[in-house]
């Protein structure tokens, strides 16, 4: 099957590639219930050495920088309580951590979670964190531009391989909340 975006050798339904995915991502795909059929979520095999967004886009095709979304883990603090949340923005923008995220989570301070926290709590590899398969209860903040995109490249939970999904599917993830101005 040909991928709707990018220059990949092959795209396959992610549900047919569960052994190549992070276990939490594979489990989330097994339980998929969104209005976008699971068959429309695609897996593409990619070089793990080229997983970082800019290098990835340069390697796998023009236009991929604009058709990629980054998922970052943010830690919000109010007193001693810490809330972890995933933020999904277009790769051409950055997360408004000190504005939109802080206000939405109702915390006094918000910052990017340390790498060991993001990796340990998500059970995913750094450079491959994806909003699909995150721990139950995590807020998944999705920029409105992500939700409106026809197709986006996101992580697969591992540095090897990426998922290509309709933005609508990301807006329907468990815990997802679409926010205007999350990406600036």
Automatic annotation (TrEMBL):
Gene3D superfamilies hit by this protein: YbaK/aminoacyl-tRNA synthetase-associated domain
Residue intervals of the YbaK/aminoacyl-tRNA synthetase-associated domain: 52-172
Pfam families: tRNA_edit (PF04073)
Signal peptide: none
InterPro entries, sorted: YbaK/aa-tRNA-synt-asso_dom_sf, YbaK/aa-tRNA-synth-assoc-dom
Protein name, per record: YbaK/EbsC family protein
Record organism: Streptomyces pathocidini
């Amino acid at each position: 099957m040909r991928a709707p975006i990018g220059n990949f050798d092959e795209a396959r339904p992610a549900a047919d590639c569960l052994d190549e995915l992070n276990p939490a991502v594979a489990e989330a795909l097994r339980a998929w219930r969104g209005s976008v059929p699971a068959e429309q979520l695609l897996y593409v095999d990619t070089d793990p050495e080229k997983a970082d967004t800019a290098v990835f886009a340069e390697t796998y095709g023009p236009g991929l920088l604009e058709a990629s979304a980054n998922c970052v883990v943010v830690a919000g603090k109010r007193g001693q309580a810490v809330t972890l949340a995933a933020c999904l923005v277009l790769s051409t923008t950055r997360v408004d951590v000190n504005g939109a995220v802080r206000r939405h989570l109702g915390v006094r301070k918000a910052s990017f979670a340390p790498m060991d926290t993001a990796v340990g709590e998500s059970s995913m590899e750094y450079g491959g964190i994806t909003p699909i398969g995150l721990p139950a209860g995590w807020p998944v903040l999705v920029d409105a531009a992500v939700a409106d995109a026809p197709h986006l490249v996101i992580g697969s939970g591992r540095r090897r391989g990426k998922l290509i999904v309709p933005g609508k599917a990301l807006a329907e993830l468990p815990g997802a909340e679409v926010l205007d101005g999350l990406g600036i």
